[in-house]
Design brief:
The complex is a heterodimer of chains A (134) and B (303).
Chain A (H helix, E strand, L loop, with lengths): L8 H14 L11 H5 L10 H9 L10 H4 L5 H5 L6 H13 L13 H6 L2 H11 L2
Helix pairs in contact in A: 1-6
Chain B lengths: L1 E5 L9 H13 L3 E4 L21 H15 L8 E4 L2 H16 L1 H10 L11 E4 H8 L1 H6 L9 E4 L21 H8 L3 E2 L18 H17 L4 E4 L2 H9 L1 H7 L8 E3 H8 L17 H6 L5 H4 L1
Parallel strand pairs in B: 1-2, 1-3, 3-4, 5-6, 5-7, 7-8
Helix pairs in contact in B: 1-11, 2-3, 3-4
Classes of the chains: A mainly alpha (134), B alpha/beta (303).
Chain lengths: 134, 303
Amino acid sequence: MPRKVIITDKNVNFLKKVEELSGQFITRCDQCGVCSGSCPMISEMDITPSQMMRMVQLGQSEVINTKAMWLCASCFACTVRCPRGLDLSKVAEALRQINLRQAIDHIDIKKLPKDEIERLPQIALVGGMRKFTG
Amino acid sequence: MKISYYPGCTLKTNAKNFENSAIAVARKLGVELIELTRWNCCGTVFSLTDDDLIHNVAPIRNLIRVEEMNNNGLINNDKRLLTLCSMCYNTLKRANLRVKENPDDLEKINDLMYLEENYEGEVEVLHFLELLRDIGFEKVRENVKNPLKGLMIAPYYGCMLLRPKEVGIDDPEGPTIQEELYLELGAEIIDNPYKKVCCGSYQIIQDKYVVSNLAYDILTHAKDAGAEAISLSCPLCAYNLDSIQKEVKEKNPQFVEMPVFYFTQLMAVAFGLDTEVFGFDLNYVDPRPLLNDKNLLGRNNEE
């Protein structure tokens, strides 16, 4: 059954915000789904990368409460394949940043067990903190 | 030939075996890796938001050091910066590209680092695999004393060497640079489509089982295709595919562990270098039983 979507100024502003942060013309996405087919994390995600794009197109700011963007590992598999030349890694980063810039960290590094921290390489910790904390 | 070399943090700890083997094989090829003076962390990941310039300061500061090395006479007029870690390679290369393509960004970054000499955008960031390709893989072959005969290797690229396209060292969909190298070392190449699938990267600190599921797929696909070991160039991939086999085994008791090499370790074995440069004690899955099976360890010392 078709669903009616009402787009208000609030929605338009959210889209603009994400476009500004990501530098991507998100409205160019025509929902082909190549990104979702390329994503190594899709089986863990609550929404697919193409659904994420659609929600941003419609300015649905609740997209920032989904799990998917936090599971993006910035592997750029979608980026090299997008037929519209869009960089979805940048869109996911913009959504993460909208959260992180409100000083809401996604993970609490202090909760990582000490032996785990000692075992992990520094690049895992630095990379993870760059992505999951503000 | 002397070239500026950026180690990055992990090459000094978890991946010391990567650094030691790389320095040794480079020396054999007549290349001296001169460690960058006063280098700092590159930041590991490139900033993906357009308004975030500040995180490019750290990588660009390292590029200024390359200019310093040239001015101090430590390097003789060579503006290349060699990296081993794929993540450092990607971050340094993308930061460099951003300021080269955006003079305004470069100006702002130079202003932010007003105590440093201005960066002029003249440095070229290079991965060791690219340098080997430039030197010529036939030169590599000339140094092989202990061909890796019968060793079935699945090259693993991961993400940071290939993507995005503008910084990739090879075709992002069909890379062959590692294959070309291992053929010269005398190994057998096992191709499989998982060679460019992400290992999970920094997701390891959020949920290690997300990573162990990916590792299980990557490792079993390589194994099913006939591989006896995987070879790669990223210390984070190495952790997520090698160390994580502990967790993979916990979840899948039938799983048989498989060694994961840095490409420079394979080169060191093939070159017949001293066993101490291999650093196999830092590999989680010990590759020595496999190499002994193939009669690849110690043969050179006997001759």
